[in-house]
Specification:
Blueprint (H helix, E strand, L loop, with lengths): L1 E4 L14 H9 L3 E5 L10 H6 L3 E3 L2 H7 L2 E3 L17 E4 L7 H10 L2 E4 L13 H19 L20 E5 L3 H12 L3 E6 L2 H10 L5 E4 L2 H9 L3 E4 L14 H5 L6 E4 L20 E4 L2 E4 L9 H29 L2 H4 L2 E4 L2 E2 L2 H7 L7 H4 L3 H6 L2
Parallel strand pairs: 1-2, 1-4, 2-3, 4-5, 5-6, 7-8, 7-10, 8-9, 10-11, 11-13
Antiparallel strand pairs: 6-14, 12-13, 14-15
Helix pairs in contact: 5-6
């Protein structure tokens, strides 16, 4: 298969879809790799590194999109990429379609076959989302601690305090992979950490695993409101695979927080789990709502691209190899978890969560714009 890797063009997105090691494995398996010049620079990978393992380096993105049978990206298409997809092409990336009507419409109009890393499953796990969730979770307390400093407009509270002073109170809403990572790092920084989740079994697991370093609380509106009111830092890490994130922290709750408190929304890729969340960039990461600071960078792992690119390739490469060798239909037919990653095909949505999120925004009709993945594969 002819596989293309374009340079990411989202603001300060320095990750790339494959390391040179990943390219080497695919070339050895008989596939042809097109890599746009400069695609790996931000991740510490030079063009010559790719060329030395058999990739063809092309000058611009248009050549990659025009020639490749499968496009590998990190983030969803934006800008000019929205018009470069084409019918019959496979797109494999983090798509987060439930949060972007523009990208969803472009994918439907192009009739591209769109596979989303974030909805691929393995049992109850999300194996291609997990590494980036770990990265974002570990970054969230660091970002929060920095913006709590008074020089950044924060309240001036140190996460771990010092003897004789109070520690910061950190509330993590959502106890999944990202939430656990955020809680562990925040606790390691010396903060008082509370993790809120609906799943009581998950909360028991967190308490057992971390031996009481993380306080846990069942999720309901009253518990969230009380915890948020006493928090210096709130980290939102709620996830419903493929669907828009629920708005669990209301504007009224935030108003009860101390001036200079910080909210970090890891769930912003899926629309965010705070009522006042809106996407920001690494270049301009925060905004104020009253006297509270919101940090809602939609590609947080892009800030540590060498780590993120390596972790991403480690997770995605086995799936990419199967799609490249068996074709998308063959690979999906043999792996129900990979089939869950199919979000759109031939101008129709395939993932129920994405359809439900986009139906009203795009005036979609279930009879014409949605086909279950089983039917797509049966007719492939």
């Amino acid at each position: 298969m002819l596989i293309g890797v374009p340079t990411e063009i989202m603001n300060n997105e320095n990750r790339v879809a494959l390391t040179q090691g990943g390219v080497h494995e695919l070339v050895e398996a008989g596939h042809t790799l097109l890599v746009q010049a400069g695609a790996g620079i931000g991740s510490g990978i030079a063009d010559e590194d790719y060329r030395s393992v058999g990739a063809e380096i092309v000058d611009d993105a248009a050549q990659v999109w025009e020639r490749a049978e499968m496009i590998l990206k990190v983030k969803e298409p934006v800008g000019e990429e929205l018009t470069q997809m084409r019918e019959g092409q496979i797109l494999f990336a983090y798509l987060h379609l439930a949060a972007s009507a523009e990208c969803t419409k472009a994918i439907l109009d192009s009739k591209v076959t769109a596979l989303a890393y974030e909805t691929v499953t393995r049992g109850r796990a999300l194996p291609l989302l997990a590494p980036m969730s770990q990265v974002a979770g570990r970054l969230a307390p660091v970002a929060g601690a920095y913006h709590l400093t008074q020089s950044q407009g924060g309240s001036g509270v140190l996460m771990g305090g010092v003897p004789g002073t109070r520690r910061a109170n950190v509330v993590v809403i959502g106890g999944g992979v990202a939430g656990e990572a955020a809680g562990v790092i925040a606790a390691g920084m010396g903060a008082n950490v509370k993790v809120i989740d609906l799943n009581l079994e998950r909360l028991a697991e967190l308490e057992k695993t971390h031996q009481g370093r993380l306080d846990t609380l069942a999720s309901n509106a009253m518990n969230i409101a009380e915890a948020v009111a006493d928090a210096d830092l709130v980290i939102g890490s709620v996830l419903i695979p493929g669907a828009a994130a629920p708005k669990l922290v209301t504007a009224e709750m935030v108003e009860t927080m101390r001036p200079g408190s910080v909210l970090v929304d890891i769930a912003i890729d899926q629309g965010g789990c705070f009522e006042n969340s809106r996407p920001t960039t690494h270049q301009d990461p925060t905004y104020l709502v009253g006297d509270k600071i919101y940090y809602c960078v939609s590609n947080m792992p892009g800030g540590v691209p060498q780590t993120s690119t390596a972790a991403l390739t480690n997770a995605t490469l086995p799936y990419i190899q199967r799609v490249a060798s068996q074709g998308w239909a063959g690979a999906l037919s043999h792996d129900a978890g990979l089939a869950a990653g199919l979000n759109a095909h031939n101008g129709q949505l395939v993932h129920r969560g994405v359809f439900d999120a986009m139906a009203d925004q795009l005036s979609l009709n279930q009879a014409h714009d949605f086909t279950p993945v089983e039917d797509v594969l049966a007719n492939a």
